[in-house]
């Protein structure tokens, strides 16, 4: 049976917070799913507590922190995914346009990137 290997911390920092290199569609989808879960958890906990209590304030601050971190993580992931298509990362800004974002998510998750090396890296899923 194959063992699952958890990436080292520098690789996780590269994956979620840096914009260099390339990622595959599977890594993009799974990392994006993890970011969404991290963002949703404080919001879920906030809905369970009574409004105006110190606990609700803590959860709202945690949600704000998670939202800002996940916003940057989504941009960094999209930039690396666009790099896999040999496209410039600035196009990730299109993810903030509502109709285009749905189409872009579809394209980034389902279509394979360019095979082999390109100007953004020798291989996918490797820090540059």
Automatic annotation (TrEMBL):
Signal peptide limits: none
Keyword terms, alphabetized: Membrane, Transmembrane, Transmembrane helix
Domain of life: Bacteria
Sequence intervals crossing the membrane: 26-46, 58-79, 91-113
Protein name: DUF805 domain-containing protein
Organism this protein belongs to: Aquamicrobium soli
